Structures are given as C-alpha cells and as structure tokens.
Amino acid sequence: MKKDFGDSISNKVYEYRVLARMTQKELADKVGVSKQTIFVMEKGNYVPTLLLAFRIADFFEVDVNDIFTYEKGSDHDD
C-alpha cells in the first residue's frame, strides 16, 4: 500500500500569467497543454509533470522554484 505523506506543490502560475497579461488559452498554447490544464493548475487541483513545470518556468524566464513550491507533509520520518 502506498503511503500518503501529505506533500503538495503550490504554484504561482496565475500571478505570472496575469502579470504577463495573458489568457489561460494563450499560456496553454505556448506550453503545449489545454486551457483546462492551466485552469485546474491555477486552482491547485493539478500538479504538473516536471517537464511541464520546466516549460512554464522557461516561458516566463524564471527558475522553476520561483513558480512551483514543494510543501513537505507532516507524515515524514525525520
């Protein structure tokens, strides 16, 4: 059985997109996904693949860690 660590990934895709004055569709077209993918990612209901995360960061010309943040859950054995 797979253990749930409670980890998550938060993102600032919405903030970067709005600052760039882009629609969800425009960003989706630039990074090769659907508008729905951008929508659910901005809502926090979808964790992108590593490849997509890097594509988005590259598009905005920032480090991937500037847009995506790993949040460690509380169930880790430290």
Automatic annotation (TrEMBL):
MF annotations from Gene Ontology: DNA binding
Coiled-coil regions, chain positions: none
Annotated CDD domains: HTH_XRE (cd00093)
Protein name listed in UniProt: Putative transcriptional regulator
UniProt cross-references to SMART domains, sorted A to Z: HTH_XRE
Superkingdom as given in the UniProt entry: Bacteria
Keyword DNA-binding: yes
Gene3D superfamilies with a match to the protein in the record: lambda repressor-like DNA-binding domains
Domain HTH cro/C1-type positions: 13-67
This protein's UniProt keywords: DNA-binding
Lineage: Bacteria, Bacillati, Bacillota, Bacilli, Bacillales
